[in-house]
Sequence to fold (376 residues):
Amino acid sequence: MNSILRFARREVRDLRPCIHGGEVWEVTSRTGLRRDEILDFSANVNPLGPSPLALESIKNNLDCIPYYPDSDCNLLREAIAKYLGDVSRENVILGNGSTEIIHLFAEVFIERGDLALIPVPTFGEYEKAVRKMGGKPRYIRLSRDFHIDLESFLREMEGAKIIFLCNPNNPTSTLILHDSLLRIIEKACEEDALVFLDESFIEFVDEKERFSMVSEVKNYPNLFVLRSFTKVFGLAGLRVGYGVAHSEVASLLFRAKVPWNVNCLAQAAAIAALNDDEYLRRTWRLIKDEKAFLLRELRRIKGFKVFPAHANFILINIRDSGFTAAELKERLLKYGILIRDCSSFRGLDEYYIRVAVRTRRENEKFINSLRDILNS
Fold:
């Protein structure tokens, strides 16, 4: 009998899995370590954990579990609009994590043969979403220090239907300046193309208001901005992400999305997190101080090339350390520390790792463990 796979679309049969950080469950199964014995530097989430107000809101809303959630997430959309300040509820769409929105956007706008421009290295789900819909990715390699060559990039935009950008970029932690983004968006208007701008890590950027493009969705209907509750708000396990777009684009995505895609506890927690100003202030202070500490200590380690970081994670080339990323990852697991081997990112080789910024105690354990390994 012929394989049942013949009934599947060719694009789906040809898909490759997208590798991510945060493999805590796989590591516990493989190593026997308990979850609380693992320091996860591979996932770029808030080291403080969820907002206390979010946790309290979950407890206070347990009685909503027997009911369907609000499929339109109206209260949460109102809270997001208030948090952002420059948009209304009609500009906001919610997803079961930001990754669902990436795939929803591709499902709505990409047809077979459409060209999508993707700078590399970057988050792998853009490519997967494009390929799943039969689109064709065009990869633009970033410079040696992982920045966009703007003039070259603008030339490459010809013929593309969608331009994917991540700002700050994952895994490089580099930032595209506001003026450069405006030129890309305006060029996209000329080319009749869409710009999908992932700002999942923008809350970790100093003076983020200078770099975010959320306020521009009113002026550019071809601009879509993605945000996440996983990173700065620490709600990774609840799966909440949102997009901000011109009302016509948001309405179109609403028509195509799965109903009830954000559960009632996730909605309640997200609303509470947006209102926890003290938690956000503590987070920003912690990340700023601990990123400076980590950058300083990592740069003292022989064989490490440490790149500047604008987000809450740091990219490192360890070629001269004597280890590959996979080897160092396995050695660190013996210390109960999990890092991100970046060899799965298109455009990076087997000598790149990514580490998240965590608390001082955790960062010190990481640095001391690295020194033990490299000096042994």
Observations:
- The first helix runs from residue 10 to 13.
